[in-house]
Structures are given as structure tokens and as C-alpha cells.
Amino acid sequence: MKTIFSTSRTSSAATAAQPGKNAMTEEIAPADTTSAPPRLDVSHLAKTYGMGDKARTVIEDLTFTVDAGEVVCIVGPSGVGKTTLLKCLAGLHPSSSGRAAIDGRTISGPPPEMALVFQDYNRSLMPWLTVRKNLMLPLRHLHLSAAELKERCDDALAAVGLSHAEHQYPWQLSGGMQQRVAIARALAYRPEILIMDEPFASVDAQTRFDLEDLCLKIRRDFNMTILVVTHDIDEAVYLADRVVVLGSKPARVLRIVDVDLPAPRDQITTRSLPEFARQRTDVLSLIKRPA
Hints:
This protein is an alpha/beta fold.
């Protein structure tokens, strides 16, 4: 996927998007999109594998939107079809019916504005390549100059706090650092939309908290639109502006929950708020509700 930051952003947003600059101290609230079309629009999307008697419908009539600069999390029971949905949105699988679109354009293949971060960093990183060379690998087809290639890698490594590890190999790093490399590789692509499939599921709890905060920092610094699939309800409420709750088999949207928590979010302060507990309970109740 060729992914380039939009050059039509305001000068303030462009300044915030420079990883080398000092980070802003407050979380950026999602822009007012009441009159703007959604960045990502999913309308009556369905996915069926096989034909005839062997047909198996995994997704049935999903409809939701993601606005520019928004973080949306998708939660639901295991096996409900969340990963299949992401593959459809990333253009890796065609939908059977309905439509998914970016800026009004139907997704029919890997979108040039999008990057995807997978759960299993062990399989996505090349162990025989250094961290920097892992970042450079998917950029080869962009035919960048040596100077721009270096700048992209430098900026991405700085954004995830791994400038010091550029010459190390993935197997020399902790699990959390390897996932940071995977995220940095996506950032080096300079996407406008970042899709993450269970990105923090394979790390310990403390590292998970750090990576969650990194996700919010990426949204803040790059004004990026982010869609996250997760099994962790606390994580979804902590990260998201809205939570799309999937249920039933085949998958359908049970409810879209608006998360009204103050910014900037903090692992201790935010999670101790009564409103955090209430919204967590609301989402869990929907998932546990009998079909």
C-alpha cells in the first residue's frame, strides 16, 4: 500500500505531525465532523465464504462510520468475525455485498491511504533484518530518494521511541519493542488511516499500557484516523472515541457506544473514573447479552 500524508492539512496539523518536534501536552479532540463526510464508511457490509450448501456467512449487514482523526475500537465475542472485517476494510478480502469506502471511494484493493498492524509481530518482522531495514522493506516500491527514505525511517523510529535500536535485530528486542517496530514500519509508510488487529494482545500488561498510550500519541501527533480491533474491553474504552460492539453469528452491530471521557487520558486517572467503569460495564453487558 502506498501511503502518503495529505498535503492539504492545515499548517498547525502539519507541525504537529513532525515526530522530531516536542510532543503536545494535551490530547487532540476529534475534529467537528458534523458537516464532513466520514473518512471510513461501512454500509450494509456482508461476507460469505463458500457457495451453495457449503456457504458460511461470517459478517451480516454491518454499518458504521469512522470520522477523520477519530479512534474507533471494535469489540465482540471471540470468533465473531472482527478480523474478517478488517481484511475486508484493508482490501485483502472482497466483501460479498454492501460497501466499504474511504472518502467516498469504494475499497476494491489495498487503499493507498491505509496501513495495517497485525497482532503477531513475530511473523510480520524479518528476523534477519535490522530494525531500520525492516522499516525500509515495504518502502522499496515507492522509489524514494535515499534522503527521504532515511527521513521517513528516522521520524518513525523517533515517534515510537526506538531511535537507539535502529541497528539491532528483532530477536534482540523485547516483545513490546518488537511491536513498536511493527508500528514504526506502518508510520514510515505515512498512512492517513491506521488499522490495528489485536495489536497489544501478545505483550504483558505494563507493556500493553505503554503501547496504548503510544497509540493515543500517534493520533495526537499525526492527527491520524485509527481503527482498532481488540478483545480487551478496558482497552477499547480507554482508547476510543466510539466503540462498535459486534455480536451474534454472523456478525452484526449491536450498538455503537460513544465514549465521553476527558482528555488527555491517563492510565491511572482515566481508569479510576466512575464514568470509565460505567462505560466498561455497558460494553461488557452488550457482549455478554444472550443472542
